[in-house]
Amino acid sequence: MSLACAYDYDGDYDVYVCPDSDLHALTKHCKCRSCRKKMQPGEMARRVNLHVNDEDGVKCGEWFLCEACDEIIETLENLGYNAYGSDDSAQDLLNDYQDYTGFDPKKYTREESNA
Predict the structure, then answer these.
(1) 58: Cβ contacts below 8 Å, ≥ 6 apart
(2) Alpha helices in the chain (DSSP H)
């Protein structure tokens, strides 16, 4: 399973994944790290910064998440999973969570009536 509540890493340094606290309007073209969607300037996205050794350490990179993927990942983070640091897509993480918990989203989907 790709979902984890903790990471084991025995390298020479640690990389800390530090998502910005808010979504921001993009100022440049980029791709969502999760779904690989091409995002345009002006679209809302979350920047995730990578730091070496600690959260205040040297910034060594960044990536962006589209609003849809970020919503999934932020929800999994709030449930206690280290989703921002995963290499798997948000949809794969969500599928893993649903398999693990037995959650069936079809059971809770509302049907719109045409009245």
Answers:
(1) 51, 52
(2) 67-78, 90-101
Q: Report the run of H or E that residue 61 belongs to, with start and end.
A: strand 59-66
Q: Which residue's structure tokens are 């649903």? A: 98
- 78-109 pLDDT, tens digit per residue, is 998 888 878 899 999 999 999 999 988 888 77
| Residue-wise pLDDT tens digits, 28-66 | 999 999 999 999 999 999 998 887 776 666 777 888 999
Place of tokens 């300037």: 41
> In 4-114, which ranges are continuous DSSP H helix?
67-78, 90-101
What token pair was written down for 77? 């983070």
Contact predicate 89/69, CB 8 Å: yes
0.85 surpassed by pTM: no
Q: Which of 89, 34, 90 is nearest to 64 (CA)?
A: 34
What is the residue type of 9?
A: Y
Query: For residues 18 and 51, is the Cβ–Cβ distance under 8 A?
Result: yes
